[in-house]
Design a protein that fits this description.
single chain; alpha/beta; eleven-stranded mixed beta sheet; eight-stranded parallel barrel; 25 strands; 19% strand; binds beta-D-galactopyranose
Amino acid sequence: MPPISFPSDPPAPLRLGVCYYPEQWPKARWREDARAMRALGLGTVRIAEFAWSRMEPAPGQFDWAWLDEAIDVLAGEGLSVVLGTPTAAPPQWLVEAHPDVLPVGADGRVKPFGARRHYCFSSPSLAEATRRIVTAMARRYGGHPAVVAWQTDNEYGCHDTTLSYSPAALAAFRRWLRARYETVERMNEAWGTAFWGLQFLSFEQVGFPVGQPTSPLPAHALDFRRFASDEVVRYNRLQVELIRAHAPGRPVLHNFMGLFAEFDHHACGADLDIAAWDSYPLGHVDTAATFLTEAERQQWARTGHPDLTAFHHDLYRGIGRGRMWVMEQQAGPVNWADWNALPLPGMVRAWTWEAFAHGAELVSYFRWRQLPFGQEQMHSGLNRPDGALDDGGREAAQVGAEIGRLLAAGDAASLAMRPAAVALVMDYPSLWMAQIQPQGKDMAGFGPMLAYYGALRRLGLDVDIVAPDASLAGYALVVLPGTLHLDEALVERLRASTAVVVAGPRTGSKTDRLAIAEPLPPGPLREWLAVRVRAVESMRPGRTLAIDAGEHGHGVGVQWRDLIELDAGNAAGAQEVRVLARYEDGAPAWLARGRFHLHAGHVDADLLLRWVDAAAREAGLSPLAPEALAPGLRLRRRGQWLFAIHRGPQPAVVPVPQGAIPLLGGATLPPGGVGIWHLSD
Ligand code: GAL
């Protein structure tokens, strides 16, 4: 490889990049593209994540010439490269020689070659082929000065591929069960196989929890989810270790998805240096966020939802232990939602600034140019298929210039993220539990989490999203938005903290085997709270129960409620329980004992805002007045900077703190507007 003099990316805390596929374009265009990227203000280019068949056209025969050249061309224009391992697209020769690479769907049918992600995480042949290609790639480019980071694979689990029902997966699942339970008797006990006579005599009898006439044992289903999650983590770790061995000092990341919880991202993220994610605000609103109402989808169709994107920035910043990148940023209409709207003018810029406000180090647009062929031909890019700059490209260039202004006004240290005062606990297994036994059709998924997150954000509060085993030291307010299973260690950490704790309905209701917490929910919190849940009910959409919260307003209960009774076995504790709101039939809707608040059901968004506001004030925080932020307006602080992003339909006045010095935007923001201020403290 010829030596390259590479001016490494300016060590700026705010960087722009783009996703590029040199293998899809004539070589003659590469240099011109690289120059245009640089001219636009982009510094980083991610390449190669689907190019396995180009790198290894036949088993063990590698063709690096094109990739050497592509990297050199980019580096020659001063661009740095994020190199993706190409395992999301195994070549046809591999699946022909080793059909066990292919995943099997829940219907028992093999998912054939012809798109991407056609692999089963448990396939031994996949592991072997992965070792070969990742090792070869990392050896070749690990020390390349232009290759500044590595991405493992692409969007694990995308297209519903976390779970595979292949013979290899079944064998691995049985091994996993044996390691977990050691004896089949223990597994029978843990799963509760006494129900419907489902005892197993050996691990070899265990099948997949799918296809039965009705639902399988919940503990069986949960263990399959845990196993599948462990398989993703193991596969990712294999790649990370190979890359680290040959690319020392280069951070390794994965590009996770939005609204996706099929494996434990905390466990996967623990092996990475940076958590990256792919941000498609309009696709998420239109199709992926099933908990939104039709009216909300209409309202946010061209801007994205005011909390959904920010939620993921905060989530992945936590998963990356402070380091978060947006690896793919929507830059125009996508092709994969049910309906694919055009972003409101200004939104590509606003999404970029929002990502930076929440701590992103890099925002990388998807993709450089719209490709006129293939499955994603209707997916926009920064440039149109004819090569002209598209609207998203112009907005990216604008952000590039604005970053220059910000960095001229403040150094990198002024942008260092500070811990938030509020922590929201995100527990992946609890989401699986709710999916396996929702008990109310709309009770599974991200809805409850977004409801609490949205209430906090409407009050102007910054939020850290943390794992259940994270330290809670320093947080004034900790929110458990329906963590079905809490382990004793988390309860201990909550008790040892001084935080005000707010728990949503169902918190602590299940054991780790997806049985009812003993002797009744809220399980490990029962002693602290001195209450128990005697019954639950879920409510169809449209059915509501009036709630009177006295000074904290009136509203309605929706979706779910826990019917609470005081713990007769803990009379002293029960005496200290304050009932702060009641349903129309007199049942408690909101209770507290000491600094612990329990919401005994889901309530409408405005009422939740009032309850969260009360808890935040009790925690010593200074939330904004509930009506201070106009619909769609959100604030986020990063270091000494305050950012405002506005998605609402009307111009909005930003409650700018006294003494703040404006850098960008004014005190009144138009729809799609961005404001940035330097704060004095
Ligand atoms: C992502 C994926 C990209 C591209 C993009 C289109 O899920 O990582 O390769 O398909 O979506 O929006």
